[in-house]
Specification:
Helices cover 0% and strands 51% of the residues. It is built from no helices and 39 strands. Strand 25 and strand 26 form a beta hairpin. It is elongated.
């Protein structure tokens, strides 16, 4: 049984920053019961398929001086569907469980309540088109990357202690090939394969970029730069350069948040400076991506903008403004003409690289958009969000093609296989899932994720 104990209370607000947000409303009277533990349990592991029982649990303790009896009930999407009576003597505790089945794919909002307040849960029921679960780690999986030949998938988990956090998987069989022995004790935020597939770069909270030999799993080199978590790494298309985007360091104003490193020697080629906002979080560079020709680097940051840099000269070329929250992910289309960005404002924006014009806004996610990825043919865009969904979009029209559900935690990263047939996703629930990325038409729901009959995208493919 897969036990997601306590996960529903954790919200990852940005790459490298975990914030637990617990809001307790003021009560008119002192509560007799307090919650000590919560969990969602799925028989047989994730993903939860339609019709499979899921157990939603909350454990209560009587904190009053006398025996107390309370009604505990379960709500699904705002509807009260079950209840029970719990009687506890002073100082004792007991768990309350509700078992439910969901007949349809989707994301459901559940609450276990007493008259003193509610505990919130989110349940993701798998869509058609799910292929395989590769991993069920105990902690968040932050990043994934396909090798250039599509045979290997690398994953990076948010682990502490003597536990390998970076793993290499065989995509065809779903088996673990190896764990990288030096990748222990750090939070890893980003992964990138070199164009020849021989080297894997990782960025982590230890403020370094590490280069790994894919064939042997050995650590080749550690690149140490300025202070700050390395939240994003990217190889240039020719494999000669590595870009590293960093988080801010309190107490500094002008901060070289992006560095370009020589991949062969580990020497610093150039720092890209210009993030001078007094607000530390607004100087947080969260994503970096090279253009297909390698001449431009795009960076999304906490100041709600995307900056385009000339890689050769290190000069600022253009600033894209329009998002109202952090820009957590940026990616170029395969032809280099369009840039996509995902943000904490729950939107995806498409930009004309040559002119800087905004081409459209894709809406439909209910929470932070953590990751965006173009299909190899450039016709489809995938997005992953903290709302537990992966969505597929038609780039030409801006319409939403499908919504994939199955994760029980916020989706941190999405990636297309090089042949475009498979979509990988990883999430805060510790899982990596593979999906059939076939676009087809909305009537062919069984061939991919759940088809969307009513699109909520508002992009027109034209400048605003």
């Amino acid at each position: 049984m897969r036990d997601l104990r306590g996960r529903m209370r954790l919200s990852i607000m940005a790459a490298g920053m975990a914030i637990v947000c617990v809001v307790v409303a003021g009560w008119a009277q002192t509560p007799a019961f307090e919650v000590t533990d919560t969990a969602v349990q799925v028989e047989g592991g994730l993903p939860l398929a339609p019709g499979v029982p899921v157990v939603i649990m909350a454990r209560y303790r009587n904190v009053s001086a006398a025996t107390a009896t309370e009604t505990v009930w379960l709500e699904i999407d705002g509807v009260r569907v079950a209840e029970t009576t719990l009687s506890l003597t002073s100082g004792t505790r007991e768990k309350v469980t509700f078992t439910r089945t969901f007949d349809r794919s989707g994301v459901y909002k559940a609450k276990v309540c007493t008259r003193y307040g509610c505990e919130d849960f989110t349940v993701g029921v798998a869509s058609p088109g799910f292929l395989r679960t590769l991993s069920e780690d105990e902690y968040n999986v932050n990043a994934i990357a396909f090798s250039p030949d599509g045979k290997t998938l690398a994953s990076a988990a948010e682990l502490w202690g003597n536990v390998p956090a970076i793993k290499l998987w065989d995509v065809g069989s779903g088996t673990l090939l190896r764990s990288l022995s030096g990748g222990k004790g750090y939070l890893f935020f980003s992964l990138a394969f070199s164009p020849d597939g021989k080297t894997l770069a990782s960025g982590s909270a230890d403020e370094t970029v590490k280069l790994w030999d894919v064939a042997t799993g050995t650590l080749l080199r550690t690149i140490s730069g300025p202070e700050g978590d390395v939240d994003s790494v990217a190889f240039s298309p020719d494999g000669r350069m590595i870009a590293a985007a960093r988080g801010p360091v309190p107490g500094t104003k002008d901060y070289n948040a992006v560095q370009l490193w020589d991949a062969a020697t580990g020497t610093l080629v150039r720092s890209l400076s210009g993030y001078t906002n007094d607000n530390v979080c607004q100087r947080w560079v969260m994503s970096a991506a090279f253009s297909p020709d390698g001449k431009t680097l795009a960076c999304g940051s906490g100041d709600k903008t995307i900056l385009l840099w000339d890689v050769t000269w290190g000069t600022l070329v253009r600033v894209f403004s329009g998002h109202t929250e952090f820009v957590d992910s940026v990616v170029f289309s395969p032809d280099g003409k369009t840039l996509a960005s995902g943000s904490g404002d729950k939107t995806i924006m498409l930009w004309d690289v040559a002119t800087g014009r905004r081409l459209g806004v894709l809406t439909g996610h209910d929470d932070w958009v953590q990751s965006v990825a173009f299909s190899p043919d450039g016709k489809t865009l995938a997005s992953g969000s903290l709302d537990l969904t992966i969505k597929l979009w038609d780039v030409a029209t801006g319409t939403q093609l499908r919504s994939c559900t199955g994760h029980m935690g916020g989706v941190r990263s999405v990636a297309f296989s090089p042949d475009g047939k498979t979509l990988a996703s990883c999430a805060e629930d510790g899982t990596i899932m593979l999906w059939d990325a076939s676009t087809g038409t909305p009537s062919r729901a069984a061939s991919g994720c759940m088809a969307d009959a009513t699109s909520v995208a508002v992009a027109s493919g034209r400048p605003d």
